[in-house]
Amino acid sequence: MPPDPAPVPARRAVSQLDHRIESSTGHDVDALRARRDRGVLDELHARLVDRHRELAQAETAVTFYRTHLHRLTSGEFPIDGALFERIKRAVEQLENAADERDAAAPQVIAALEPIESAARTAPAARSEPIPAADQAALLAIIGGAKLYQHLHTGRISATTAAGIRIPYPELKRLESAGLISRDTSHPLHAGQPLALTEAGRTALVSVRRMPATEAATRITRPGAWPTTSAHRR
């Protein structure tokens, strides 16, 4: 008799809470995960994604062991002592996975409720997404960026870790809006590190899903900047 198969990690297990998560955040779970991995999310949303990952893993295990138990009892294998042992082990594993799932679900709900509450009480102005160019700027800054002043020309601009150059007027606008901050303890000629503020992270989280066709038109080649005023160093 072949050995018990090992669980295969799933890309994402769909849980009964996914609809609530997507409804309250305006993003599907995969998009939230991607933003979490990039460090875009604020603390509340990051905690929600972490708790959902745990729930998804438990859901995956439940599905796996349930399918495995069904295979063992399908008549594929001879009925003998070895089969009974495998069925017993599969039932125990399924029970443990179900216990983990039942313990993880309340943790997701606890992390989700503050976000749902904030979504219900948010002012109407929050429904207006930030412009696409600002979204791109904030996402670029997350990967690392510094503000420089050229020693000879005096010109000020920011360069990201990916080599994208962001015009200074756009940076000033983002800074004035409280979306980014800079470390002024460093001189401009050496480079002042830029970072997203909590408001900047929240602004990115608040951006609603756009249609796939619209999103496609906003995707640019690596190193390109999605505004006419942008240029590379």
Looking at this protein, list some descriptive labels.
single chain, 233 residues, alpha+beta, Arc Repressor Mutant, subunit A, 2 domains, five-stranded antiparallel beta sheet, 8 helices, 53% helix, 9% strand, elongated
Sheet of most strands: 5 strands, antiparallel
Number of domains: 2
The shape, in one word, is elongated
Q: What topology, given as strand order, has the largest sheet?
A: 3-2-1-5-4
- Figure out the total of helices: 8
Low-confidence stretches: 8-13, 123-127, 208-233
The secondary-structure class comes to alpha+beta
Count of DSSP strands? 5
Taking the alpha carbons of the first and last residues, their distance comes to 65 Å
Oligomer: single chain
Average residue pLDDT:
77
The rounded Rg comes to: 24 Å
- Provide the succession of SSEs: HHHHHEEEHEEHH
Strand content: 5-15%
Describe the structure.
This protein folds into two domains: 16-121; 132-209, Arc Repressor Mutant, subunit A. 53% of the residues lie in helices and 9% in strands. It is built from eight helices and five strands, in the order H-H-H-H-H-E-E-E-H-E-E-H-H. It has a five-stranded antiparallel beta sheet. The relative contact order is 0.12.
